[in-house]
Design a protein that fits this description.
Elements: H1 3-13, E1 20-24, H2 32-38, E2 44-49, H3 52-64, E3 70-74, E4 87-93, H4 102-112, E5 113-124, H5 130-133, H6 136-142, H7 150-154, H8 163-170, E6 174-187, H9 191-201, H10 206-210, H11 217-229, E7 237-249
Parallel strand pairs: 1-2, 1-4, 2-3, 4-5
Antiparallel strand pairs: 5-7, 6-7
Helix pairs in contact: 9-11
């Protein structure tokens, strides 16, 4: 489902053979694995995440692909255990929204970049887009008094023009480029699959889902599935996703 997001940030990072790349909050390995593949066996990509379990999965995926230029390290984005000026590129896909202290994390990214090095970040755009309107949007409309939890609000904290770019400027980056882009965001399965997945793994919205009264759960699920079926072509659910893609350079 996130393949086009990975492709977008990998292209925007503009890596070149021999570079050292840090991918912050890489989870189970993307875009670190794709970046390592793009380097064609040269350079080095370090994927970091605060959680160990997804990093173990990422390392296994890299081994399966024969990538010897990809390594993974547990690390908090706010306190990177890495040397100053040791990377040519820093990336993070769907991670920056969840940093508790964005300024601190961006300062750490700038610190580990070489002079002239480049950071590229990808975040969700505004909430009002098909995937979220068909799920949390339906819940908010169907359940009186419900509200988006703070963890869910963070998902869209960079959904307006200039917010993430401004954060990079405050952190000392220059030559900042920001764009909002609409990309395919398709689920290769049924609306029922999407709704099951959303309930199981979309942690930021779990408080909202758990707050649905027991007597309303069946009706809410029915309304969500009706909304999702509008995007179903018989083999997959075809959403689009609006993303915020921002890059900046460390001072020379």
């Amino acid at each position: 489902m996130g393949r086009q997001m990975t492709e977008a940030i990998v292209a925007e990072a503009r890596v070149e053979p021999g570079m050292r790349v840090l991918d912050v909050a890489c989870g189970t390995g993307e875009p670190a694995i794709s970046l390592a593949s793009r380097l064609q066996g040269s350079g080095m990509v370090i994927g970091s995440d605060v959680s160990l379990q997804p990093l173990q999965m990422a390392a296994q995926r890299a081994r399966e692909r024969g990538l010897r230029n990809a390594g993974f390290q547990q690390a908090d984005a706010h306190f990177l255990p890495l040397a100053d000026g040791s990377f040519d590129r820093v990336t993070s896909r769907l991670g920056v929204m969840f940093f508790s202290d964005v300024s601190r994390a961006l300062a750490e990214m700038r610190r580990v970049l070489k002079p002239g090095g480049r950071v590229t970040l990808l975040a969700w755009g505004p909430r009002r887009q098909p995937y979220f309107e068909s799920t949390i949007g339906v819940i908010l409309s169907a359940v009186p008094g419900s509200a988006l939890p703070r963890s869910g609000e963070q998902m869209f904290r960079f959904g307006q023009n200039g917010v993430l770019a401004g954060a990079l400027a405050e952190a000392g980056f220059s030559d900042i480029e920001e764009q909002f882009r609409v990309i395919p965001w398709s689920w290769p399965g049924t609306p029922e699959n999407v709704w099951e997945y959303f309930q199981e793994v979309t942690v930021p919205f779990r408080p909202l889902i758990e707050a649905i009264p027991a007597e309303q759960r069946a009706q809410v699920s029915s309304e969500v599935l009706t909304a999702l079926r509008r995007y179903y072509d018989g083999s997959q659910v075809n959403f689009t996703a609006t993303i915020c893609l921002v890059s900046g350079c460390a001072a020379r």
